[in-house]
Amino acid sequence: MNVQKINWYPGHMKKTKELIQTNLKLVDVVVELLDARVPISSRNPQIDEIIIGKPKVIVLNKSDLANPKTTNEWIHYFKKSGINAIAVNAMNGAGLDKLTAELEETVKIKMEARIEKGMRKRPVRAMIVGIPNVGKSSIINKLTGKKSAKTGDKPGVTRGKQWVRLKGNIELLDTPGILWPKFEDQNVGLKLAFTGSIKDEILDIETIALRLIEYLCDKYPEYMKERYKLKMIEEDGLVNMENMAKNRGCIISGGRIDYTRIANVVMDEFRSVKIGKITLETPDDLESAMDE
CA 12 from chain center: how many Å? Predict the structure, then answer.
């Protein structure tokens, strides 16, 4: 197998930050959607700069796929930073009721001030931002329900954008734009590839899987030994990959390793939690990076 540097190009997924900036003035609070397995890599480093001064709630989606202990560590970390964070599972809706309550609480003082000034009471207005495949559509669908009511165009809303009424007294500005993170760091790109935020079709799946195997054998060796019947974890990740392939019967004519097949097996089983509930980044990772 030829191991090479990974290159990719987001292509059509790139959107200008002006899309968010233009609509920011229309909302009271921003929901920043992250992947609970990679809270660092799934954060757009420009978001805080773009929404400066606007209240924010962080949603750690796909928490059902992540290590629960580490997810709690992240919630505590963000809380220490003055930002409330909530773990949710958009597939079954777990945690979303807490989100709606948190949004109302976050802007409670602002809404009370409006009433004191003699302004009419209105719903809380929110906007969700997040990179592709973190579950934005799933969360919106769960929050609105199947029969989501369009609340109509609001003054200042450009054509093609709609307000949708959520459960509770909240309206969500549903915009078509996606802001992709700018990343030069190969490790960030790798982790987004592991979790499926970058399409497999534009990647070298064998190299991606090898890198994932190296990480998991280092951080979660017992999971890997149990799942792939490994007697021991070797220092060379490629040797581990080959042993896994042999144990799974990923062999082609002549007894050669079918690297593509074992690569797809590992990627699929990581994403479907068959290896275990795994988080690839911890608050300690973030603090270590900041100290460098």
Answer: 19
**Is pLDDT at 152 greater than 50 in this prediction?**
no
User: Which spans in 5-135 are helix H?
Assistant: 18-24, 47-50, 68-80, 96-106, 108-116
Q: What is the mean pLDDT of residues 253-267?
A: 96
Question: In this predicted model, what pLDDT tens digit does every residue of 4-59 receive, in sequence order?
Answer: 455 544 444 445 577 788 889 899 999 999 999 999 999 877 788 888 889 999 99
Q: What span, in angstroms and rounded, lies between the C-alpha atoms of 247 and 227? A: 10
The pTM assigned to this predicted structure is 0.84
Instruction: Residue 85: name the closest of 103, 66, 109, 64 by CA.
Output: 103
Angstrom distance (rounded) from CA 36 to CA 62: 6
Instruction: Note the Cα 130 to chain centre separation in Å.
Output: 7
Q: Which tokens sit at 139?
A: 């969360």
What is the Cα–Cα distance from 209 to 266, expressed in whole angstroms? Answer: 7
Q: Which residues contact 85 (CB under 8 A, 6 or more apart)?
A: 57, 58, 59, 60, 74, 75, 78, 79
Region of 104 (left: φ > 0; alpha: ψ -120 to 50; beta: rest) is alpha
Mean pLDDT of 231-250: 97
Give the separation between CA 103 and CA 35, rounded to whole angstroms.
Answer: 19
Q: Cα–Cα distance between 277 and 258 in angstroms, integer?
A: 27
pLDDT at 182: 57
Helices assigned H by DSSP within the chain = 18-24, 47-50, 68-80, 96-106, 108-116, 136-144, 186-195, 205-219, 221-228, 237-248, 259-271, 283-291
